[in-house]
Structures are given as C-alpha cells and as structure tokens.
Amino acid sequence: MPYTTVVAGTAITASWGNANVRDQVVTPFASSAARAAAIGTPVEGMVAWLSDIDQLHAYNGAAWAPAAFARMGGSVRNSDVTMTTTETITDSVTFTAVAGRRYFVLWSGSCYSSASGDSIDIRLRYAAGATVANTDTLVTINSMSEPSANYVMNGTFFAEITGIAAGQTTVGIFGVRIGGTGTIHIWAAANNDAALLIQDVGI
C-alpha cells in the first residue's frame, strides 16, 4: 500500500477507500479469529486492535505480532514446592509464540534448604506445546548455596528467550538440589507469592 497524498480532483472510489483508508487505519476486532475472518490476505504494515486481550498488533509480512511490549501470560503461586535431587517444576506459563520475537521472562520467588551448605539450582526451561519437562530446552540457571539451614534466599531472576518457533509454548521454572543432604523449598505462601511473567519485547 503506497503512502497517498490526497490532492484536489482525487477520485474517492470504493477501491481507493479500501486501499488508502480501511487498510491503513487501526481497526478494532473482537479477537484474532475475527481479524483472520475479515482480513484474508494481510499486508505488511497493517495494524489491528484485539479487544479480547487489549493489544495492538501489527503484521510484519509473515505474522501478526504485538506492536509494542505486551504481556503474554503469567502465573502466581502461594504454596510451597519441595524437592531433593529430582528437578521439579514449580511454576509455568503457556502462551502463543510468534516466530522471530524475543520474550522477556521474569520469575520472582524465594528458596531455602533444610540443611546448611546445600547447593540449589533454579532453572528456566521451555518447550513447544502445553507442558514443559525437566529435559526440555534449558535457558538459564540461577545457582545458590544455603548459608544456614532454613535461611530464605531471594531467587528472583530474569532472562530473554529467542528462537522460539511459532505456536503454543510453555515456559517453566524448576528447582533441584545439586549438592548436600537437605530438602529444597521453592517457597511461597499467602501474601508471599512466587510469580512468573512472560512479556513480548519485539524482534
């Protein structure tokens, strides 16, 4: 679609209006399904508002994607999760990824061990589909050492994930004891939540 300057004598026809007004304004749609039904062949640069998720999306020539930083999903947990030497999931979020986008992951939580000196890993993984396992793609590890038994430590960390294929994706936080003898707690309680946030931060 070219950038058009209207001058005196411009004929305003239906096709002109569709190409230069309809296709170059921000059009609201109830959902991505409604948008797909209305715009069968999108053109790079088109912009649409999705009312169901309150997001502005732009077509990049290959796919629709958020036009600005957008929250893709989040979870909140207020109960304790324990483990020893088996890497165990504590928090997860499932969202629909767009190929070529970068995703910012923030996990806020606490951990401790019942034994002094234990080594604790908090690991971030992701996988295609609705679940993620402790063998799936590893993004980053936050390693800590328990200074004294039952001393609660801040395990909060953030990371950026790139290279995710388009489609349903699940990001998960896992805990595991990699040294020592105690029980590991990836801790949360009422008014002391553990939270996982996924945000689309562009290309």
Sum up the overall morphology in one term.
elongated
The portion of residues forming beta strands comes to over 45%
First-last Cα distance:
23 Å
What is the string of helix and strand elements?
A: HEHEEEEEEEEEEEEEEE
In the CATH hierarchy, the third-tier topology of the largest domain is known as Jelly Rolls
Describe the structure in your own words.
This protein folds into two domains: 55 residues, YefM-like fold (3-Layer(aba) Sandwich); 132 residues, Jelly Rolls (Sandwich). The chain is elongated. It contains two helices and 16 strands. Helices cover 7% and strands 49% of the residues. Strands 1-2-3-4 form a four-stranded mixed beta sheet.
Brief sketch in words of this structure:
The protein folds into 2 domains: 55 residues, YefM-like fold; 132 residues, Jelly Rolls, CATH 2.60.120.1340. Helices cover 7% and strands 49% of the residues. The strands form 4 sheets. A 4-stranded mixed beta sheet has the order 1-2-3-4. A 4-stranded antiparallel beta sheet has the order 5-16-8-13, with no helix packed on it. It has a 4-stranded antiparallel beta sheet with strand order 6-15-9-12, with no helix packed on it.
List keywords for this structure.
7% helix; 2 helices; 16 strands; mainly beta; 2 domains; 4-stranded antiparallel β-sheet; elongated; 4-stranded mixed β-sheet; YefM-like fold; 203 residues; Jelly Rolls; single chain; 49% strand
